[in-house]
From TrEMBL:
GO molecular function: cysteine-type peptidase activity
Keyword Phosphoprotein: no
The name this protein goes by in its record: Ribosomal processing cysteine protease Prp
Organism: Jeotgalibacillus malaysiensis
Entry's family note: Belongs to the Prp family.
Length: 107
């Protein structure tokens, strides 16, 4: 199962997110849950890097089953909007494939 943890500060701003694990929906290379979650998360990170001034800290695992992205305190509203969009997309995947992906929020 893919575990997604969204970390927010007391003001509700997204400070980090972490994705860990494998969906195991299908065999490697044909797992649409993993492909969808990966595309959404990496697309969002790439959008932050390309469209904002925010420089997040990015940590990746060697086997592709781990991604952690931390945002600096000065992350702007555009960064927050991109991250909120990512969450909506991941929640859409979770609604259909909840036995393979779980999103939790942490403050």
């Amino acid at each position: 199962m893919i575990q997604v943890i969204i970390e927010k500060d007391p003001n509700g701003l997204i400070r980090a997110f972490q994705m860990e694990g494998h969906a195991d929906y299908a065999e490697h290379g044909k797992d649409l849950v993993c492909a969808g979650a990966s595309a959404v998360s990496f697309g969002a990170v790439n959008a932050v890097l390309s469209l904002t001034e925010t420089e997040p800290l990015i940590h990746q695992g060697d086997d592709g089953g781990y991604l952690r992205v931390e945002f600096p305190d000065e992350a702007n509203s555009s960064t927050q909007l991109i991250m909120e969009s990512m969450i909506v997309s991941l929640q859409t995947i979770e609604q259909e494939y909840g036995q393979y992906i779980k999103i939790t929020f942490k403050q």
